[in-house]
Please model this.
Amino acid sequence: MTFRSGLRYILAAIAALGAGAASAEENVLNLYSARHYQTDEALYADFTKATGIRINRIEGKEDELLERLRNEGSNSPADLFITVDAARLAKADELGLFAPVKSKLLEQRVPANLHTGTWYAFSTRARVIVYNRAEIQPALVQRYEDLAAPALKGKVCVRSGGYPYNLSLGSALISHLGEAGTEEWARGLVANFARSPKGGDTDQIKAVAAGECQVTLSNTYYIARIMRSDKPEDRKVMERVGVVWPNQKSFGTHINVSGGGMLKTAPHPQAAVKFLEYLASDEAQAHFANGNNEWPVVKSAVVANPALEALGSFKADSLNVGTLAKNTAQAQKIFDRAGWR
Ligand code: FE
Model:
C-alpha cells in the first residue's frame, strides 16, 4: 500500500465511522449505571417504548464505573453516568466528565438545591438516628450533635468514617457547625463508640436491636427494607428499635441523593437529555424512587410505598447538593484526625 492509498483508506474508514455515529444518534443510548434494582427494568422498557431509543446498560460498582470512564477518556461510548451519593457525582464532576445540561423541563421539575449545572438528583434518602427503645430515651438523640454527648459514652456504633454516606453527612455538618465544630463532633462521636466501625448500615441497625450498641446512623432505605421484610427476625429488629428524624428544630435531617448526568464525550447527547428529562417524569420518578425505597425529587410524583408512608414526613436539610459534595474531602480529613476509621 502506498502512502497515498493508505491515507485514502484511513480517511474512508473515518468517514464510515462518522456515518455510523450519525445514524446511531437517534436510536441508542449507552448508560453506565451503579443502580441495580429490579424495578429499574420497567423504567428502561417504558423509555424505549415511548421514544424508540434502545438502552445499552453497563452496570458496575460506583467507583469501578468512574475508573472505567477515566480510562476510556474521549473514546468512551457512555452517554450518561447514573449513581448514588452526592460525593460520587461530585467526583465525576471534578474529573470533568459531565457536560453542562440545559433543560427547562429539568429546571422546572428538579428543585434548585437538588441539581448543579451538570448533574441532577432523581431521588433522595435521609440519614437518620436509630436507637434501642429499651435502653435509650428518644429525647437524648434528637440531633446529630447528641451522638457526641458524654451521655452516650460506649453506646454508639456506626459504619466507617470513610464511607461516602458519612462523608456526605460530615460535609453537611461542616456547612452548619463549621470545621472546628464538626471536628469536635467527630471526636465526641469516636469517644462514644461501643466498638470499632465495621459492616454496613444494616449491620449497625441489627447490632442496636441486639443490644451490642444502643444508637446508630442509617440511611432510610435500609430501614425501609427491614420494615418490608417478612422474616420473623427482621420483625423483631423493628420492634426493638426506634427511628428519629434528626435536627427537626434546626437545619433539618441530612439527605443524600441518587442522580446522574450527561457525559462530555456522549456520542448521543440528544437522547441523553431526553432520558434525563424522562427520569423527571411522574411515572419514572415513582419507579426510580420505589426501586430503592427512596423519595422522588419531583413533588407531584406519587409513591405508593407502605414503608415510606410508615416512616412519615420530615424536614429535610435544604443544603445544595453541589455544596454538600464540595466539602467531602474536608470531611475526610476531619474524620481522619478524629480517628473515625
Ligand atoms: Fe447504600
Summary: The chain has two domains: 28-124+255-305, 126-251+316-338. DSSP finds 14 helices and eight strands in the chain.
